[in-house]
């Protein structure tokens, strides 16, 4: 009947969500006093492919949104995310949370130098500039990265 159909759809949706996200998210109940450490480790396992796809760096608010989406209904607070990120160095996790002079907080992998990240960002700006038409200021800013072409 209709209830069997809706139950099957709900089960199919749950399987799809689990395939996209985190199957057993760390919670305060499951981790207790070690909650932030376990959250830091879960982020360290989950973040590398996400960062790689984003060019090696993501603003912290983006990490918050994407991570919570992957967790499904076990959402974390911005404060818990920040506390977990601040534990990476202590736990020897190769990720860092940086605050730029502009006030923007980002997450990046320690295996990418600032020069590499800048080169990726300049290529992205140059590519989006080519797609959007000509903006002379942006073209000049990205001109030095065009001779090698996109990576």
Give structural attributes.
151 residues, mainly alpha, Arc Repressor Mutant, subunit A, three-stranded antiparallel beta sheet, flat, disordered C terminus
Description:
This protein is mainly α and 151 residues long. The chain has one domain (2-112): Winged helix-like DNA-binding domain superfamily/Winged helix DNA-binding domain (Arc Repressor Mutant, subunit A), CATH 1.10.10. Helix content is 59%, strand content 9%. It contains 7 helices and 3 strands; from the N terminus they run αααβααββαα. A 3-stranded antiparallel sheet has the order 1-3-2. β2 and β3 (105-109) form a beta hairpin. α3 (35-53) crosses α5 and α6 packs antiparallel against α7. The longest helix has 19 residues, at 2-20.
């Amino acid at each position: 009947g209709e209830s069997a159909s809706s139950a099957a759809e709900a089960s199919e949706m749950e399987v799809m969500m689990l395939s996209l996200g985190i199957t057993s998210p760390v919670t305060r109940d499951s981790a207790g006093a070690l909650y932030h450490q376990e959250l830091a480790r879960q982020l360290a396992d989950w973040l590398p492919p996400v960062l790689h796809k984003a060019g090696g760096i993501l603003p912290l608010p983006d990490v918050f949104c994407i991570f919570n989406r992957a967790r499904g209904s076990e959402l974390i607070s911005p404060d818990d995310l920040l506390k977990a990120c601040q534990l990476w160095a202590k736990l020897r996790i190769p990720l860092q949370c940086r605050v730029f002079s502009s006030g923007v907080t980002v997450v990046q992998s320690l295996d990418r130098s600032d020069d590499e990240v800048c080169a990726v960002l300049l290529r992205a700006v140059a590519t989006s500039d080519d797609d959007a038409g000509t903006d002379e200021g942006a073209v000049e800013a990205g001109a030095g990265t065009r001779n090698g072409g996109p990576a």
